[in-house]
Amino acid sequence: MQLPADYHMHTPLCHHAVGEPVDYARRAVEIGLKEIGFTDHSPMAKDNFDNWRMSDGQLDEYVAKVRLAQKTFPQLIIRLGLEVDYLPGQEDWIRKLSARHPWDYFIGSVHYVSDSWDIDNPAKLSEWKKRDAFEVWSIYFQRLALAAKSGLFEIIGHADLPKKFGIRPAQDCRPLYEEFLAAAAKTGCAIELNTAGLRKDCREIYPSPELLQLAKGKKIPITFGSDAHAPAEVGMNFAEAVALARSVGYVESCRFNRRQHEFIKF
Fold first, then answer.
1. Which end of the chain is more exposed for a tag (fewer CB within 10 A), N or C?
2. Model pLDDT, residue 164
3. Sign of CA dihedral 43, 49, 51, 57
């Protein structure tokens, strides 16, 4: 089986990954991938926003690292992207980022349900005890819907991230999913099957089978990503991700080049 492209990988510039892009590319070649894409955490408008992303002044360095990997492994298709945090009011900043380099795609992700709480941060796990889980999930999916509506992203990242620590509401979350999925369907935004969830407390790919089934019903395209923060994680659990995609009826995924897409069977 030819594995699909791994479109979600990081670099040491985010301060919580190891290995240079050439190391990730080498691993991709070793396991037989034909295409990958780098999507490190983008700068924010203020460099001190948090401590897990590159600074604005490092953006060119990041691009140079990816270009070096492209040059070193010409047999491998290597795309240039960013994982960009969506926060309401940051749209103009994202547009400025878009204009700075010839990106292949942006992954839009929601990590923050407020300006100070990144819900997937282990250092802030105690914050979950102060909030109702359904309230947190509701805010998260409201922001994810806004991200999809914005038209700023080709892909939405880890679409049910709040489950990372295994904290799930007792209530039915399908109404929360519907607003987000309707927005993604309208703008043609893809969602990723992100295998990092299998390495977290939730022990489940992002998104869940239920959410992915609803996405298929709305004909929302998909991509695949390991969310690798080390070379050994490149393409990890992709066989399981492909099996999940096929189980709900997907037979092709998106590939991107200079923010234009095409479909390829897997």
1. N
2. 98
3. positive
